[in-house]
Amino acid sequence: EEKKEADVENEAKEEKQAGDGESPQVDQPEDKDSQESEEKEDEAGMWEETFKTHTDSKPNGPSSVGLDFSLPGFEHVYGIPEHADTLKLKTTDGGDPYRLYNLDVFQYEINNPMALYGAVPLMLAHNVRRTMGLFWLNAAETWVDISSNTAGKTLFGKMLDYVQGANEIPQTDVRWISESGIIDVFVLLGPSPFDVFRQYASLTGTQALPPLFAIGYHQCRWNYNDEDDVRSVDAGFDEHDIPYDVIWLDIEHTDGKRYFTWDSNKFPNPKAMLQDLAAKKRKMVSIVDPHIKIDSGYKIHTTIQSQNFYVKTKEGSDYEGWCWPGSAGYPDFTKPEMRSWWASMFAYDQYEGSMDNLYTWNDMNEPSVFNGPEVTMHKDAVHAGGFEHRDVHNLYALYVQMATSDGLIQRSGGTERPFVLTRGFFAGSQRYGERFLFLKNVCL
């Protein structure tokens, strides 16, 4: 009875509070949305990594894909360019694996598996009887480890094994691991080196046949200062009876590193200069890099910006980095619309001062970002379709060269072979032109 009286008294108090506009004092369940928000805040940044002053947010968490291959009967493997190392790939036991990640590395170490300007994930294994290949189709940062059961054996040791009748079969083991993407691997069965390359070409395309002038002598330096300088060099070759076919212009010929332009003070009449070269059946190559100066008066920038063609940050704004022009945007060449527009800029009515004897050099297309991690683009930058830069990094240079090559073909109505030199490259770049060897303390 006392309990009942207490319950009645409590109910009366609650009714009074309700009548006074007050709510009964009861425990409220925690707001679900608030709880989820707090959980997301806790998760945000939990996987991020910092390299020097740069942070990789890793919004999807850490990831990797990999596969091991055993190659019995093979102790010699080759390929996976680009590295400043021996032709025969070394074993990596106790050391760093070979790295495939396109980087602007001006001063690099020799006899080292470090990454350089380009990456082709193709490895050949060879012995006296056959050759086979492994093509690891992945454009993310990739590492390759190599081990062998004959590693460390001297020639004398191998001869001794043979004399003693040792029956151990040579074997090379290879481990591929990429930061993201899927496992997409092709085993090329040969059996000859020619067969392996034919099979590889059936997957990635054949080498573009260059224009005839491309196999002649090219004269290039950083930098010919102006039209008078170009004419002086050209006349010097004639004076000394030295044959040459092509002269090159680096970044200083542009209006403040605005590509597709000319410095009006130093190159006031580029068409006349090109006509003088054409009269001698000579060509010119000018540089067109894929970092675009951020300038509201520069039509290349304003068009890319208005068409939403720039690579984005993880927050959705246009990605900006620092390169030769200063603050620069980076076109998203993974977009077919961007590549089509870029190709159209090589038309004679768009690239003012150009002629049919002007060809192109794509430099800095790893891409190079002076203030980025390892002098390249942040991995959590975002491309079309929501793909992070980490997923497509090694493809960037290929797409730049592809779009440029298409532009030179289109401007001639498909009647002339293009010449496009690239620094960065990936599997398939051979379809679109040539690439130049890496630099090492070059004095120009």
TrEMBL record:
Domain of life the protein comes from: Eukaryota
Name of a matching Pfam family: Glyco_hydro_31_2nd
Region Disordered, residue ranges: 1-47
Ranges where the Glycoside hydrolase family 31 TIM barrel domain occurs: 208-433
Coiled-coil ranges from the UniProt annotation: none
GO cellular component: glucosidase II complex
Compositionally biased spans, kind Basic and acidic residues: 1-19
Leader peptide range in chain numbering: none
Keywords assigned: Glycosidase, Hydrolase
BP-aspect Gene Ontology terms: carbohydrate metabolic process; N-glycan processing
GO molecular function, one term: glucan 1,3-alpha-glucosidase activity
Location of the Glycoside hydrolase family 31 N-terminal domain: 46-145
Assigned protein family: Belongs to the glycosyl hydrolase 31 family.
Protein name according to UniProt: Uncharacterized protein
Gene source species: Scyliorhinus torazame (Cloudy catshark)
